[in-house]
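Hi C.,

You asked whether I'd gotten around to modeling the 97-residue construct. I have! Everything is below, sequence then structure, no commentary in between.
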Amino acid sequence: MATPTRTSKTYTISLPPDLAAKAEGLAKHESRTMSELFREAFRVYYSRHLDNIFADLAADPNRNPNGYTEADIPRIIKEFRAEEAAEEAARQSAKAS
């Protein structure tokens, strides 16, 4: 029987006692696990971080001359990764020659 692969990564974090008590109390109040609480906290933090980046870009059009929006991010990442993969393939091909 094959061992199932883990679909998540485990982290250990430390919190000061007062913050830990608040987190535990909130998790209990919302009937969530600590993992669920911290996943949601990171999602909110990350979303706000992206919002701040795009607010900065919107405030200064010179920093975003192409007018990219948050909706463009997945496409841009995909294009970047494809370019990186093509460059790596070309380097490997050049080594093999």
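If it helps when you're writing up: Residues 22-65 form one domain.

Thanks,
B.
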